[in-house]
Amino acid sequence: MSNPIAIPSVSVSYAQDDTSTRPNALGMRPMQERAYQKRGEQYLLIKSPPASGKSRALMFIALDKLENQGLKQAIIVVPEKSIGSSFHNEPLSQFGFWADWQVEPKWNLCDAPGTDGGKVDAVKKFLKSTGLHPRHLPLCRRQIWHRSFRRSLNRRGRVSPRFRQSRQ
């Protein structure tokens, strides 16, 4: 028999001493703290077991990017509606962080009633808006994001100048 093929994998193991759930001074678990240390990166992939705090890690990072790194807008895009419930308001300051996570009901497009067309228009309205507080974050399903972006493409498949101007 030939040599076995090496398959890349990621293995996460936690000590059985409760340290993986003990928060630091900012209210972050160890995995969230490791992700937060990389908050300056343009792209960041967080691969961690279910219920390990990936959504909250994203909250910490997004708030920092909006408040301290000059990012003007952020949109939280989730694969399905049920995951959107992980991003409801969180009083992070009660646990030591410097800000709370808040999503205004009008920007929570996972819970909002209405048709997908209306939600697509809401995303486009958010992208074109100016003067919003930097922490106004819309939350939507991936399908809504794709539709709103597709509507911003011109006939040649390029981002239309109007959409580009709204992002500057």
N-to-C SSE series? HHEHHEHH
Share in helix: 25-40%
The coarse overall form would be globular
Q: How many β strands by DSSP?
A: 2
Widest β-sheet, arrangement of strands: 1-2
Number of helices: 6
Low-confidence stretches: 7-12
- Strand percentage, roughly? under 5%
Integer-rounded radius of gyration: 19 Å
- Number of domains as seen in the coordinates: 1
Mean pLDDT rating: 78
> What is the distance, rounded to the nearest whole angstrom, between the alpha carbons of the first and last residues?
59 Å
* Classification by helices and strands: mainly alpha
Largest sheet: 2 strands, parallel
How would you describe this protein?
- The structure is a single chain.
- Strands 1-2 form a two-stranded parallel sheet.
- It has one domain (19-167).
- The chain has helices at residues 30-37, 54-68, 81-84, 116-128, 142-150, 161-167, and strands at 76-78, 139-141.
- The chain is mainly alpha-helical and 168 residues long.
- The N and C termini lie far apart (59 Å).
- Helix 1 runs parallel beside helix 2 (54-68) and helix 4 packs across helix 5 (142-150).
- The protein has six helices and two strands.
- Helix content is 33%, strand content 4%.
Main features:
168 residues; mainly alpha; two-stranded parallel sheet
Short summary:
The chain has 6 helices and 2 strands. The protein is mainly alpha-helical and 168 residues long.
Give the helix/strand layout.
Layout: H1 30-37, H2 54-68, E1 76-78, H3 81-84, H4 116-128, E2 139-141, H5 142-150, H6 161-167
Parallel strand pairs: 1-2
